# Entry
Amino acid sequence: MKRTTLAAIALAVTAGLGLTGCAGAAGPAEPQAAEGKTRLTVSVWNYEGTPEFKALFDGYEAAHPNVDIEPVDILADDYPQKVTTMLAGGDTTDVLTMKNVIDYSRYANNGQLQEINSVVDKVGKDNLASIDAFDIGGKYFAAPYRQDFWLLYYNKDLFKAAGIEEPKNLTWEKYTEIAKKLTTEAGGKKTYGTYHHVWRSVVQAIAAAQNGADQNSGDYGFMEDQYNTALDLQKSGATLDFGTAKSQKTSYRTMFETGQAAMMPMGTWYTAGILQAKKDGKTTVNWGLAPLPQKNDDGKVTTFGSPTAFAVNKNASHSDEAKKFIEWAAGEEGAKAISKIGVVPALQKESVTAEYFKLEGLPTDELSKKAFAPDETALEMPVSDKSAATDKILNQEHDLIMVGERSVTDGIAEMDKRVKSEVLGQ
Amino acid sequence: MTTETITQAPAPVHSRGNRKQARRNTLIGWTFILPNFLGFLAFTLIPVVAAFALSFMEWTSFSAPKWVGLANFQRMFASDSFWIALRNTVVYALGHVPLTMALALILAMLLNRKLKGIGFFRVAIFFPYITSLVAVAVVWNMLFSPDSGPINQFLGAIGIANPPGWTSSSDWALPAVIITSVWRDMGYYMVLYLAGLQAIPTELYEAAEVDGASAWQRFWNVTIPSLRPTTFFVVVMLTVSSFKVFDLIVVMTNGGPGRSTTVLSQLIYQEGIGEGKFGYSSAISLVLFIIVLTVTVLQFKIQQRRER
# Structure
């Protein structure tokens, strides 16, 4: 009797486990919305730390009371891998956020996204930055709503203290020269002239953009000058040593916000970060923006950037609602909603830019405004199915050059050789 | 007559009951392992078998897998990255296994005595093992920092003019990772050795002492042979974990600088999850599986021969 009871309990527990297991795997089949409302699901990363999502969702819900937006929050670092897994498993999330164009091309070319030419046409191709990156044989599978590009952040107080005028029309030579001048050491506290973060784009994407070169070409001679500049700055102590930055996992925000670096090439996403830090009283840095230093001094500003876009999942539960949301988010209203929190929208219209500069705390001097209107913005990494593999190799060789294990010439030769044999030759 | 029927009758009933009982026991046994077995089946056994099959295919996770025969293996054996990762994995194992073992044994000997506050020291040595691995990796990274790190400042202070660049140098990054992992793991293996030491009967030492054996002879002829089962277990566990090392390296160096600390399990992750080449990465994991299997079987064979 007792044994039967035990066996029964064991069986019941097992069955229970099995059932919950099944339920867990299937997930909520159809999200339950409040009466009469459509619940639209959108994949996002780090919802708490990426305020643009909340701004867009709140704005859209206010304008469309019959829609409830539910963010599907994913860890930022694992975002592409997680979305890939979700899609492979037939997930029905309606809107998928494309963190970068490399992932976009992977999903679109594998038939995971719906074509949304009608949405792109309504928003207007001419005003959307980087829209060409989404063109796959005349078809668009996503619409960009955000466009980050690189510029130069600088600390106005440190410039004034060193008696250096604002960084106008900088070439890389001039930039190196003032970075060295701005480097000081007093009372054991070192102030660096500039801070180059450890990402390869700081050297490689800049070189590619300003030389009009292709990072998937397997031919990397165009990076030589930019590497020499970066290494010269490092050797002279005008920027934090690469090895130290890497091993201490140095935060670029700390470097700039505590005044340890007088300049810093960085993406526009950081403006929202500084504004928030100033609002929270975490920093008092008196900052300004300048265009990225240039290769030539012809006055033309070339930088690089990366768009972020929304796409409709092939298996979306609410395709039509998803398209409406994207049209709103990539359009003027969405652009204004994110401008208000310091995020640069992909839609480039005067009315939108005006909204952006109304932001409290944003530097409003002429140079800062000029920094926001580069003449040309190249893609950080070209759209290709080879980009992910090339990226890995360029990263590894970048490390070796920056820590001084390989000379610039040898490092570039190694990149050429490896990309040709491991990526292009496959 | 009646007694006969009584004694005879129950026999078949009894054996039927026995069989029933046996079947019921088996069923109960199965139900007890079922939850665990289902998990093992769904998350270990099936994926392992699937990975074996996938290593002969090309699969991006979006479309159906395509049979490619041995192409993945040809590609792997022709790839620099694979050989570099294999070499790094072997070097890591060769550093990590003996060092951890030796230090764990030494610590266990030191702490295997009656001393005031011995509990504190044992806990202190064990502590790294229960500390979050990410925290360990980040803190050691800072200690190893080439310019401002305490380790190099200390080395500078004792007169070493050109201290190593540790994680920022491709020659020293792997040793830095090995040092960190030894520091982290030695406490755990020390506990295993401690248990082994305490199981050695004191009579053996007393008899050896009576026979005039020195401390060194006692260690070599009593302690070491008595610890053989523990040592075997420690070696197998350490070897398997060395070949599978992933987390510590990802957080500390992420395989860099260049490819100087990329190990096989990391290469599997990069190729599979990172670039979506699941067939190719399954092929690498198959090779890793065969290596670990061979090494473990070899260790078992050696152990058996010793015991004979």
Chain A has 18 helices and twelve strands. Chain A has two domains: 38-148+307-364, 150-304+378-424.
